[in-house]
Amino acid sequence: MGAFIILLAVMVLGIGISIYRRTKQRKEENSIGTFPLAWKSILARKVDFYSHLTPENKSKFEDDIVRFLNNVRIEGVGTTVDITDRLLVASSAVIPVFGFPEWDYTFLDEVLLYPEAFDRNFSLGSKNEFITGMVGSGSMEGKMILSKPSLHLGFDNASDKQNVGIHEFIHLLDKEDGSIDGILPTFRGKQFTLPWLELIRKKTEEMLKGKNKDINGYGATDQREFLAVAGEYFFERPHLLQKNHPELYALLATAFNQHTINILKPGKTSRPQLERNKPCHCGSGKKYKNCCLDQS
């Protein structure tokens, strides 16, 4: 009996080693080496944040993109996924943590792209819910879901202070300490946490009274959404944020460990603006002027 158990253990160990070697080989075969020139062109055309970086920081951004794509699967559900989709997902992930060298997200294995908005049951075509991004939990732990049209819209308009990819990855960064609570791990400690929570309370109260209309009203939902909405503002319109809400800008610069006013030049964007009368890319079916432009 003892010999049988030893033999069984050796067999299990052998199978485990074989699976590990095959998995490692597949990762090595699929890993990305030198950053392709065509990818640089896509980032320069599509990602405003990247286009404003110095050559040295562009190289760092590219390295971060490669590391993310080597570690996280990106799959389409009812839609195809091309290299532009993959680069936009990766850029959404890299931008919030660009101030933290070689950052890897703990709670993410896979990003799923849907062809349109979905509901909380991950079903398409709902008339009651219109969700464009979600960080998974429970049975969906380790996954993120994004509406592909909304992902593209976030980068097509770099001045409306809205980017669903960045929004969801801020939530994921928030989750690094185990929970999404509107307090980034870098805020831990009373010297940052208390001023941050007080500022959220103050800004939310003002928003509910009709003030601070330059901040997306969705941020008044709770402190988790305030962080993500304010983060979108910080990464798209930092000069306007600093002008209108200097304390908010300063705290976010500390939290994300980067000063976006030194990256994005005021009044300049490499992104073409969307036409007001064109269908909104978020998939709502409304014209852009009657949909997401209202939050600009």
Provide a descriptive summary of the structure in words.
With 296 residues, this protein is mainly alpha-helical. The chain has helices at residues 2-30, 37-46, 48-51, 55-71, 83-94, 148-156, 164-174, 190-208, 223-236, 238-244, 246-256; strands spanning 73-76, 110-114, 133-135, 143-147. A 4-stranded mixed beta sheet has the order 1-2-4-3. Strand 1, helix 5 and strand 2 form a beta-alpha-beta unit. Helix 5 crosses helix 7 and helix 7 crosses helix 9 (223-236). The termini are far apart. The model is unreliable at 1-30 (pLDDT under 50).
Name a few traits of the molecule:
single chain; 296 residues; mainly alpha; 4-stranded mixed sheet; 48% helix; 6% strand; disordered N terminus
Gist?
With 296 residues, this protein is mainly alpha-helical. The protein has helices spanning 2-30, 37-46, 48-51, 55-71, 83-94, 148-156, 164-174, 190-208, 223-236, 238-244, 246-256, and strands at 73-76, 110-114, 133-135, 143-147.
Structural class from helices and strands?
mainly alpha
The main sheet orders its strands as: 1-2-4-3
Instruction: Sketch the major β-sheet.
Output: 4 strands, mixed
Number of helices: 11
**Could you report the average pLDDT, rounded to the nearest whole number?**
85
Tell me the fraction of residues in β-strands, as a range. 5-15%
Cα-atom radius of gyration: 21 Å
- The helix content is 40-55%
| Poorly predicted runs | 1-30
Tell me the series of helices and strands, N- to C-terminal. HHHHEHEEEHHHHHH
Shape: globular
How many strands in all? 4
Distance between the termini: 73 Å
